[in-house]
Amino acid sequence: MNVDELITEITQLPVSDKWQLFKKLLDILNQQQIMIEPDWHQFVQEMYGSINDPDFRRWEQGEYEEREPLA
């Protein structure tokens, strides 16, 4: 059964069964979720100096508009 066929079957379910399926799918996705916390120090060390193009430069920042104060 492919996804389209499965969706067709799901649309025929009663609403209570759809909610039950939805909750079960959320549980499965939460269990399979992989949380990766980036190591920013390692990232900076790996990326620092990685651009070898001598023409690469930071452009001027330009002028920012003056805005009304928030308070």
Blueprint of the fold:
Blueprint: H1 3-11, H2 15-32, H3 40-47
Q: Key features?
A:
single chain; 71 residues; mainly alpha; 3 helices
Describe this structure in words.
With 71 residues, this protein is mainly alpha-helical. 49% of the residues lie in helices and 0% in strands. The chain has helices at residues 3-11, 15-32, 40-47. The longest helix has 18 residues, at 15-32. The termini are far apart.
Summarize the model shown.
The protein is mainly alpha-helical. Helices cover 49% and strands 0% of the residues. The chain contains three helices and no strands.
Please count the helical segments: 3
The separation of the N and C termini measures 59 Å
By oligomeric state, this entry counts as: single chain
Mean pLDDT: 87
- The global form is elongated
What level of helicity do the residues show?
Answer: 40-55%
Structural class: mainly alpha
Number of strands: 0
Order of helices and strands: HHH
Low-confidence stretches: none
- The fraction of residues assigned to DSSP E strands is under 5%
Biggest β-sheet strands, sense, barrel: none
What Rg is obtained from the alpha carbons, in whole angstroms? 26 Å
